[in-house]
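Reply to dn_fold:

You asked what the input looked like. This is it:
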Amino acid sequence: MNHIIGFSGGIASSATASLVLREHPDAVLLFHDTKTEPADNDRFRADVSNYLDTPITEDSDGRNIWELFDDLGFIGDGRMTPCSRILKQERSLNYLKNHLPSTLYIGYTADEYHRAQRLYARYAKHGIEAKFPLIEQRLSKQECLHRVTNCWKITPPQMYEWAKHANCIPCVKGKKAYWGLIYKFERAAWEKASMYEEKFGHTIFTEAGSLKEELPNCLRLAEKYLQRRDGERRQGSLFTLPCECSL
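and this is what came back:
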């Protein structure tokens, strides 16, 4: 049996890796690079890999999200995300199919059971078992963060200073508050996305104007988000639909 850890390089997948490696020291840390992440995410992944004494196995398409959009002739949005599907989900499935029999371990936390059900069904039809150690042990994102920062003494990715996830910059699934944050903290990525809206003639928001037209509202919502980000229950999500980029 091959034991494969879906290693996105975030806090939850890192905590998952630690749990799995205790039981299966030969488990693989599988990472799919979209070539569109901040450099500090790379630093964090390397720190975790060193701490766990396990190398990262990279299986990547080679394109970044902009190159993929150029090849497809359209930009993704909140409902249609070819970047996640092609650069991560399909590569994960193909890797696992080539390493059967396999068990895939995913870092969904205790409050993400609905996501786990959907993912379990997706892989089960291909003869791949998906397991969710954090859900089994009822571990929250905060507990994972505590383990990584206080126990392992590893500094989280800089993205966690303003976002819940350390993933692509930008993510086309983001809601308006998210795009306000991108404008504030990752201006170059916002400008690139705005340019691609104009290039392909449609917007990232499925039921609103362009990034430029919606900028004042995005910034207002981003400020509200930042003001209450410490209140997890009241904070809400930055994404219309859950991001599948844990794979």
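The chain has two domains: 2-156, 159-235.
Hope that clears it up.
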